[in-house]
Amino acid sequence: MTAAPRTAAPAVVRTTPVETAAPGRAARPRSGRRVLRLVSPVVLLAAWESAARTGLLPPEKLPAPSEVLQTGWRLAGDGTLAVHLLDSLQRAAIGLALGGGLALLLGALAGLLRVGDDLVDPPVQMARMLPHLGLVPLLIIWVGIGEELKITLVALGSFFPIYFNTYAGIRDIDERLVEAARTCGLGHLARLRHVVLPGALPSLFLGLRLAIGAAWLSLVVGEQVNAQTGIGFLMMEAREFAQTDVVLLGLLVYALLGLLSDLLLRIAERRTLSWRRGLKAT
User: Fold this and answer.
1) 214: left (phi over 0), alpha (psi -120 to 50) or beta
2) Sequential DSSP letters for 128-147
3) Residues 227, 229, 231, 233: is their CA dihedral positive or negative?
4) What is the distance between the alpha carbons of residues 168 and 50, in angstroms, rounded to a whole number?
5) Which residues of 151-166 are buried (b: 16+ CB within 10 A; e: fewer)?
6) Phi and psi (nearest 5°) for 228?
7) Which residues contact 165 (CB under 8 A, 6 or more apart)?
8) Per-residue pLDDT tens over the stretch 207-229
9) C-alpha–C-alpha distance, residues 208 and 271, integer Å
10) Where is 15: in which H helix or E strand?
11) Which residues, including other chains, have CB under 8 Å from residue 159's CB and lie 6 or more apart?
12) Mean pLDDT by 10 residues, the chain (282 residues)
């Protein structure tokens, strides 16, 4: 009698239980953080409102936030605010496009080519030590006091952050990645597209965020020099008539424009650099 053939016992695979997050578990902390970020601004506004209403703050020096909002609603209703806002946006967009485009071109030239680094970077390094807002008297002689002055100031303010971050972003790329791409047979344009551009994008987005802030700061100064429209002109005109609420409204509009532009840029950065995993605050 022959014994029945043995069959191998099935292997037992030990698996580590995977913890699954409950629905809405990740959403609740995120929404909680968003609410938490609103606490301090709301507290400051409430303290400001109560101090103005109780007389601790003189209304002619610092009116209540509710009065500033009423002034904004009135100027928005008659179309005055929209006219000045559109002119300011146009100047900022043109200046940012001119200064940012030139900075991107020169930064890439200095970062990619040795001859570009030798010819472009030294004069830019020298020029960055000059405060561009201190050049207003010289710019008035060169370009006059018209629209060219406002756009030139915005272009100068946005040039240096984009140039230096483009230059640094290219130079900080690991050279071994470029060599590996060359070994794999990628041409020069392909290496620029698949290695250099993704590696420099984080620094470029940082430069754009800094440039937008500098652009709004430059526009505030530029629109106070012989302007007929714009938020800065609206503030200067209000100063002549001691309209503190209008001055504060202009500052609020500038702050909201800067915050909104930075928010949109951060959303674009998050979507463009979705492959990047950085350290998150805890």
Assistant:
1) alpha
2) TTS-GGGGHHHHHHHH-SSH
3) positive
4) 48
5) bbbbbbbbbbbbbbbb
6) -110, -15
7) 107, 203, 204, 206, 207, 210
8) 999 999 889 889 888 888 877 88
9) 15
10) none
11) 99, 100, 102, 103, 211
12) 47 45 49 70 84 81 86 88 91 93 93 89 88 85 88 92 92 80 77 80 90 89 83 87 87 87 87 70 55
- What pTM, to 2 d.p., does this model score? 0.78
How do residues 86-116 score in pLDDT, each as one tens digit? 999 999 999 999 999 999 999 999 988 889 8
Residue given tokens 């004069």 in the structure block: 123
Q: Which amino acid is at 246?
A: V
The b-or-e profile of 14-30 (16+ CB within 10 A means b, else e) is eeeeeeeeeeeeeeeee
E strand or H helix at 61: none
CA pseudo-torsion sign 47, 52, 54, 58? positive
Q: Which residues contact 235 (CB under 8 A, 6 or more apart)?
A: 224, 246, 247, 250, 251
